[in-house]
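Narrative of accomplishments. A recurring question from our advisory board has been how the design workflow behaves on a single, concrete structure rather than in aggregate. To address it, we present the structure tokens for one chain from the evaluation set, followed by the sequence designed for it. No filtering or post-editing was applied between the two.
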């Protein structure tokens, strides 16, 4: 991490940080979970963001401008029964970002969290296609058919579709822009309405 931070100095000051590294240690559940898996998940998700962000803050503070966007997960706000280690780490990212936002607000820096729900990625595509084959669909079925049949097995998304990486990139780009200058400490959900309403 320190080498990565050092290498950025050749390109000038870093104004925007997007902490998108993370992941889970697999399909843990309360019957198989181990403390070591929780520690690894916390290191991979939370501490990785801390290691990148902390050394870049002084230059942002000196410039009186910066954007920090931490990619968490809807699982951090709506934890499922499985993968409790992942959900807990992603919830920690939300709390960490809220604390950071307050700490740097007077320095012209914003800190926000993006919470993706069901977003089409390589791994989601593979999981959906595997489930689709189990439901009798052909391996080369069009994505629209796979999505229609398989999405309800994974999540009850009110919009009835999976989000795209482009939609997620657009949300991150907005938070990184000057137009989001008065938004800080926010949790932007990209979930197609999955979050339970009040």
């Amino acid at each position: 991490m320190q080498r990565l931070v050092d290498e950025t100095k050749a390109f000038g000051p870093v104004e925007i940080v997007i902490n998108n590294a993370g992941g889970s240690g697999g399909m843990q559940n309360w019957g198989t979970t181990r403390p070591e898996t929780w520690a690894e998940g916390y290191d991979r998700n939370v501490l990785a963001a801390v290691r990148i962000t902390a050394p870049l803050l002084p230059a942002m503070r000196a410039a009186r401008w910066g954007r920090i966007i931490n990619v968490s997960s809807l699982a951090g706000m709506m934890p499922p029964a499985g993968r409790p280690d992942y959900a807990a780490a992603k919830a920690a990212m939300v709390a960490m970002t809220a604390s950071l936002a307050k700490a740097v607000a007077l320095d012209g820096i914003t800190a926000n969290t993006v919470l993706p729900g069901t977003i089409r990625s390589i791994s989601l595509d593979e999981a959906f296609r595997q489930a689709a084959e189990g439901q009798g669909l052909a391996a080369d079925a069009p994505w629209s058919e796979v999505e229609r049949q398989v999405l309800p097995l994974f999540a009850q998304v009110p919009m009835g579709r999976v989000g795209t990486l482009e939609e997620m990139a657009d949300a991150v780009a907005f938070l990184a822009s000057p137009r989001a200058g008065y938004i800080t400490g926010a949790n932007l959900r990209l979930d197609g309405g999955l979050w339970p309403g009040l």
